[in-house]
Amino acid sequence: MLERIRKEFPEYRMAILHVTASAETIRSRAQSRANKTGRAIPTELLEESIAQAPKSVKALSPSVDVTFTIRNEDNQPIQLAEGATSWKEFRKMWWKNLDRKECDLAPWCESFRP
Prior knowledge:
Layout: H1 2-8, E1 15-20, H2 23-37, H3 43-60, E2 66-71, E3 79-80, H4 87-97, H5 100-104
Parallel strand pairs: 1-2
Antiparallel strand pairs: 2-3
InterPro entries: P-loop_NTPase
Organism: Pseudictyota dubia
Protein name: Zeta toxin domain-containing protein
């Protein structure tokens, strides 16, 4: 699918935002959501997802322009993974690629202004 998008829209830049957390944090959040909503994710499916996500990112990364890994642990600031571009560069890259007309209608765009 990514190859088709590249062929049809060569001007597009593509990125993967891989948001990570420890397996313990993921399980805790899933349990918390289940307690609040009454809808639980089957344990086997959750464990498969925890294992599969990094493999999918690794497989798809060569097909995109950039991959960002963002750590999102409880009780810690959200941070880019080591070796990644700085938040300043992250914002700069996204701002450069945002459609300004679209941004006028979406206040969240301002958070990406360099």
